[in-house]
Design goal:
The complex is a heterodimer. Chain A contains no helices and eleven strands. By secondary structure, chain A is mainly beta. Chain A has a single domain, classed as Immunoglobulins (Immunoglobulin-like), CATH 2.60.40.10. Chain A has strands at residues 5-7, 10-13, 19-24, 31-37, 43-50, 53-57, 65-68, 75-79, 88-95, 104-105, 109-113. Chain B is an all-beta fold. Chain B has a single domain, classed as Immunoglobulin-like, CATH 2.60.40. Chain B is built from no helices and twelve strands. Classes of the chains: A mainly beta, B mainly beta. The interface between A and B is medium-sized, with 28 and 25 residues.
Chain lengths: 114, 116
């Protein structure tokens, strides 16, 4: 069964460093998302992406964040200068169009900013 | 703005018994979708069940079923014949649009423990 994959599974970085989180959505899906979950809290929407552009972003998704679909398979989230409060689990999700209301999540990347 | 409320932070159930997890939501939309996701200790988000608001029939998936009360804006999850593998965090989620601007709004989650 097709699934969303994410790399790396864990990332430790120093405050102020740039990180890139990678996702490979399900191959025939057209809508892509990033969510984050700070430990012990609920899952929060960051950004949605369709047709090679951002379709919606939350207040969390400030100028330090960017997304890109550099080729036909990858979908990346970049944090330019990480802060301590960026420590969280980051989930990528994708959705198709045919009966495609369901978003399928990847296993997540656990980011720790020191 | 849509909100999703899960007021029970934790629940516990004996193996093989039935448990119901509550969820309410608030929206002015008429067409929307509701989901329950499971998050085991691995922290992966796994879809459990989904309900389209325009469908009156409650969704079922094997041991999982929902009680969808549109007028009351309530969407509870019933787990029958609970198994140890059901131990996880359960999130209720809401989505309006299915176009480019669709996004999931999650509740705070409920931690379910299944006792042997």
């Amino acid at each position: 069964e097709p699934e969303v994959t994410q790399t790396p599974s864990h990332q430790v970085t120093q405050m102020g460093q740039e990180v890139i989180l990678r996702c490979v959505p399900i191959s025939n899906h057209l809508y892509f998302y990033w969510y984050r979950q700070i430990l012990g809290q609920k899952v929060e929407f960051l950004v949605s992406f369709y047709n090679n552009e951002i379709s919606e972003k939350s207040e969390i998704f400030d100028d330090q964040f960017s997304v890109e679909r550099p080729d036909g398979s990858n979908f990346t989230l970049k944090i330019r200068s990480t802060k301590l409060e960026d420590s969280a689990m980051y989930f990528c999700a994708s959705r198709g169009t045919s009966g495609g209301e369901t978003q399928y999540f990847g296993p997540g990347t656990r980011l720790l900013v020191l | 703005a849509q909100t999703v409320t899960q007021s029970q932070p934790e629940m516990s159930v004996q193996e093989a018994e039935t448990v119901t997890l509550s969820c309410t939501y608030d929206t002015s939309e008429n067409n929307y979708y509701l989901f329950w996701y499971k998050q085991p200790p691995s922290r992966q988000m796994i879809l459990v069940i989904r309900q389209e608001a325009y469908k009156q029939q409650n969704a079922t998936e094997n041991r999982f079923s929902v009680n969808f009360q549109k007028a009351a804006k309530s969407f509870s999850l019933k787990i029958s014949d609970s198994q140890l593998g059901d131990t996880a965090m359960y999130f209720c989620a809401f989505m309006t649009h299915t176009g480019a601007n669709s996004k999931l709004t999650f509740g705070k989650g409920i931690t379910l423990s299944v006792r042997p």
